[in-house]
């Protein structure tokens, strides 16, 4: 058992053991100081009672001249009290309770006793009681050195009464009593110690349990609860109150955590909005410089009538309209990108046919494909059902396809774009690949192309109506879906890909 000297259990055990030792020591001290006095006073009281009894009863035997009864009664009193009794009449005739006591009183002894009583030559400190004609004193036998208590008194009939009581060596009794107390003390400490261990364990276990619960609460662990017992005591009441405090603290802290999380989200949202606003202003101010300059230049030309013929004025107007459309398209796509990157954009996911969506994107670009003499290959005929937001997936496919049209070039006399599908790297997903023939992308640009407004060929992108936001938009959409996307250089071309989740029916 692990003993902690500063624990309540140890302190309680030591305190109770100390109390037992103090009680035993007190008893020993009282025994040494008081026992002898009590012993002497009890002997004194016994001798006085015997004197009173003899003074009242014995004269009747003399009146009845019953000497034999007189001797028997003296012997009876002496035996019952462990006394030696002697009565001396006026004729110096002696009646004793036993012959040995009578034999001790020869003429010399009798004369000594009479002399001692008459002249009181006993040591005053040995006198225990003295009143009228009755005296009780401690004496010592001159022959054998034994101690006695001697009562000498004068009876109402004029006879002298002597009662002698042997004194047991009181110190021996005190020592014996002390030894007995020591044994009792050791046994009491052992038995009490065992009882104290049981009692302290009963009291300290709930305290230790409450301490563990309190430590858990200090570390914000509210899973521990005090087990309420059947008995209704203070510890049980304390445990119930601690459980109530624990529940309230847990509830309060959970509410604080929830409020804190909401506050953090609000702060984060505000921070994102501020960042989005700053980024939007920066991007717009950067990207709208050129179209605004062009619109301003051509508008001033129209105002100042730089070219008076109708054809040039129409050209100026078309340039202004084209740049305005580009600005409108740029702002709309930029806003959409900002929402995807900075807001918790919720997608409206549904099951739709991916093959049909890709064919629709190809049909929408048929005029451009014909003008640029581009061959498009897409061999999928069976429907492929996926689960996603068809609006955003169409944007991804459209951006890849538009990007392929802008960057396709002849290889072996042909401009070629190929769209294909295959199993994704993750189970339950399909990978859509868009390949275009032409130059590879330099290695250092493979990651940069996903950054907003990054254009490998600035002049070419402007001529083709590019905004530099398309691939950044793809990246934002795929990140929301936590799906793979990327670009790979192929032989004589470049292949872009993305993955999307198949519908349950398709799986």
What does this structure look like?
The longest helix has 56 residues, at 8-63. With 507 residues, the protein is of the alpha+beta class. α1 packs antiparallel against α2 and α9 packs across α11 (390-407). Mean pLDDT is 79; it is low at 115-124 and 458-463. Helices cover 58% and strands 16% of the residues. A hairpin with a 5-residue loop joins β10 (415-423) and β11 (429-437). It has a six-stranded antiparallel sheet. It has a five-stranded mixed sheet with strand order 8-10-11-13-12. A two-stranded antiparallel ribbon has the order 7-9. It has helices spanning 8-63, 67-81, 99-104, 107-119, 170-218, 234-287, 289-303, 310-342, 354-364, 366-371, 390-407, 458-463, 470-481; strands at residues 84-88, 94-96, 127-131, 134-140, 147-154, 160-166, 350-353, 374-377, 385-388, 415-423, 429-437, 485-490, 493-501. It is rod-shaped, with a radius of gyration of 62 Å. The protein starts with 7 loop residues before the first helix and ends in a 6-residue tail after the last strand.
């Amino acid at each position: 058992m692990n003993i902690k000297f500063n624990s309540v259990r140890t302190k309680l055990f030591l305190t109770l053991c100390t109390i037992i030792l103090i009680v035993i020591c007190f008893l020993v001290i009282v025994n040494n100081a008081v026992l002898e006095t009590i012993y002497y006073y009890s002997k004194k009281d016994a001798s006085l009672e015997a004197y009173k009894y003899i003074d009242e009863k014995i004269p009747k035997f003399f009146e009845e001249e019953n000497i034999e009864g007189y001797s028997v009664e003296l012997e009876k009193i002496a035996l019952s009290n462990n006394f030696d009794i002697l009565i001396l009449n006026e004729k110096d005739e002696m009646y004793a309770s036993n012959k040995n006591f009578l034999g001790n009183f020869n003429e010399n002894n009798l004369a000594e006793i009479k002399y001692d009583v008459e002249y009181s030559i006993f040591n005053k400190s040995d006198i225990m009681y003295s009143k009228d004609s009755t005296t009780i004193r401690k004496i010592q036998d001159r022959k054998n050195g034994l101690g006695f208590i001697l009562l000498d008194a004068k009876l109402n009939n004029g006879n002298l009464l002597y009662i002698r009581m042997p004194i047991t060596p009181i110190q021996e009794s005190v020592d014996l009593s002390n030894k007995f107390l020591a044994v009792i003390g050791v046994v009491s400490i052992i038995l009490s110690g065992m009882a104290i261990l049981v009692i302290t364990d009963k009291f300290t276990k709930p305290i230790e349990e409450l301490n563990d619960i309190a430590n858990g609460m200090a570390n914000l662990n509210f899973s521990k609860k005090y087990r309420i017992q059947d008995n209704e005591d203070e510890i049980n009441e304390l445990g119930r109150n601690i459980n109530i405090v624990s529940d309230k603290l847990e509830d309060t802290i959970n509410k604080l955590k929830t409020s804190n999380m909401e506050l953090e989200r609000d702060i984060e949202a505000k921070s994102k909005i501020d960042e989005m606003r700053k980024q939007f202003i920066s991007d717009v101010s950067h990207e709208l410089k050129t179209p605004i300059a062009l619109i301003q230049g051509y508008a001033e030309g129209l105002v100042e009538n730089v070219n008076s013929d109708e054809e040039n004025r129409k050209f100026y107007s078309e340039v202004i309209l084209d740049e305005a459309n580009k600005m409108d398209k740029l702002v709309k796509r930029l806003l959409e990108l900002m929402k995807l990157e900075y807001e918790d954009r919720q997608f409206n996911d549904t099951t739709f046919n991916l093959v049909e969506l890709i064919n629709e994107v190809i049909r929408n670009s048929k005029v451009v494909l014909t003008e640029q003499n581009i061959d498009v290959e897409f061999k999928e005929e069976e429907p492929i059902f996926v689960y996603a937001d068809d609006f955003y997936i169409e944007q991804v496919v459209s951006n890849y396809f538009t990007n392929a049209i802008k960057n396709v070039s002849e290889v072996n006399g042909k401009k070629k774009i190929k769209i294909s599908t295959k199993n994704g790297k993750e189970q339950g997903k399909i990978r859509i690949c868009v390949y275009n023939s032409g130059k590879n992308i330099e290695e250092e640009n493979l990651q940069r192309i996903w950054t907003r407004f990054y254009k490998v060929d600035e002049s070419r992108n402007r001529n083709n109506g590019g905004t530099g936001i398309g691939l950044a938009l793809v990246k934002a959409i795929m990140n929301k879906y936590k799906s793979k996307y990327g670009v790979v250089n192929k032989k004589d071309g470049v292949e872009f890909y993305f993955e999307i989740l198949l519908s349950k029916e398709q799986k």
